[in-house]
Amino acid sequence: MTLLHNDPTTQLAFSVYENKGVFAVLLGSGLSRSAEIPTGWEITLDLVRRVATAQGIENQSDWATWYREKTGQEPNYSALLEEIANSPDERRAILHRYIEPDEQDREEGRKVPTKAHHAIAQLVRSGHVRVIVTTNFDRLMENALREQGIEPTVVSSADVLAGAEPLTHSRCYLLKLHGDYKDARILNTDQELSAYPESYDKLLDRIFDEHGLIICGWSGEWDHALRAAFLRAPNRRYPVYWAARGALGSGASELAIHRSAKAIPISGADEFFQTLQQRVETLDQSQRQNPLSIELLVNSTKRYLAKPEHRIQLDELLSQEAERLMTQFDGGQFAPHGQWDQEEFRSRVRRYEALAEPLTRMAGVLGRWGDGSELTTVLDIVRGLYLQAEKIGNGLSAWLGLRSYPAVLIFTAYGVGLTRSQRWQTLHELLVAPWPREYRDPKRVVSTLFLNEWKGARSEIWKELEGLDRRKTPLSDHLLEVMTNWRSSFAGVSAEFELVFERFELLAALAYLEENSEASLEQAFADTPHGLFARMPVGRVGWHDSSANALILELQSEATITALLDAGFARNSRRFLELSIESFKRYMNKMSW
């Protein structure tokens, strides 16, 4: 007997955790039915019943058969709505009573997102699920996602798909195969469900080809176009799990055999998705330091920082945490040898982040509320981590480069904290601080740890992270995501955090240019009327026009110019700053293409 014998849910949880963003969820009417929202077919038959009853027809045991005999046609949702109501507003009003909860429904928990919907939304929030395919036309899934602060990309028709955000760029992509209940074009009948638009077929082919699947609430018996898409898909390396009450029916069994799907017997969708989400969360937390102990370290840092007489305790706290982090570097989980593997890369990034989170948050606190005296301590920690990482020189270059990732995280958090508090002089001192000489080349912090100057970013490997494969600045984008998740410790919940992060990036890029003399920069500018004339590392701010334009205006204001020059930026030269801004603008032009 194996450890996971008769426990497919835990097996699935491990797969979802280790393959973050790989699994798509396919939801059928079973989920909405448990919220007491009728299916499209049930609504259609109820409309038939209501019309017939109004005409004096006695109750029928089979309204679908009665309708066929009466009209010679199949019951059709759209046709019935058009007959009953003349205007779109009237049609929406009719549907409203089936889908939207009234006050009593809310009190009794009907027609609102179920525990299953909420658990799926939590898996989306944690980044473990990015794609949801559903045959339901209600908005329970959207509502659950929005309660988690997630605005999904919702595709409910071929027209919407044509103008929708690309699949790879969306944090959450929700494909509503049968449409949305506020659009009378929803699909119901066998004929309507026999074929999808070509654009839908292509999208489904891609989703089924590139993702594992978690299926729940869909019988697999109907919806011939969806069955056809399922059967077209090759048996890929990512598995399919089919959660169902009891044994799968004949139609579902055929599909399961085709994709080698693993059936998971469940008592209900609520229990299944709640259990799955909780086990994924447990696995995630098992790789992180106890969240309570992280908060204790952060709060201790704030408390010691507030009183100069606690400076010794603060230094000891930081040193202990730095030593704890360094001892983790040489463990087996970060062995530098072996072959390149995308999943191993993703796993290592997560593990480094989990280990570095406490010290990174503490560094952010120092940046936000320090007085400048902490700079030496932060530099000692960052240099120490980097030198510890460099002690191993043989192995796969990708794994070797990643070893100093914690130093990058701490440098970034401290720099963002300084930027948030507008401590420009300390920020400049951090960026231009000398770095231990390597191969006789004098270096500075900004030319060692900032974006593509860091050796761990010298290739396109950061595009291998979930959702970053088509990004222009994958490392920058990922660092923003990490800092956003940890910002509560040192930057508050300001809606402008993205701008704070990009302000830090821009100032770091300007500081990088100070390796040049003003004369050499002036000459390069004169020799290059168009295009790039000075090398500088530029992150997401280079293509994020709204932030970039706002920051350029900020840099051209007299108050900001004075503050930055007084802090040591741009070699204390107004002309050097003008040239630096012009260099950045040239990068903007290049990156916008």
- DSSP helix fraction: 55-70%
CATH fold category name of the largest domain: Rossmann fold
CATH superfamily of the largest domain, by name, is TPP-binding domain
Spatial ordering of strands, largest sheet: 3-4-2-1-5-6-7
Count the DSSP helices: 28
* Total number of beta strands: 9
Gross morphology is: elongated
Which CATH class of the largest domain? Alpha Beta
Largest sheet: 7 strands, parallel
Give me a quick take on this structure.
The chain has 593 residues and is α/β, with parallel strands linked by helices.
List keywords for this structure.
593 residues, alpha/beta, Rossmann fold, 4 domains, 7-stranded parallel β-sheet, 28 helices, 7% strand, DHS-like_NAD/FAD-binding_dom
What does it look like?
The structure is a single chain. With 593 residues, the chain is α/β, with parallel strands linked by helices. The protein has 28 helices and 9 strands. Helix 8 runs parallel beside helix 14, helix 20 crosses helix 24 and helix 25 packs across helix 28. It is elongated.
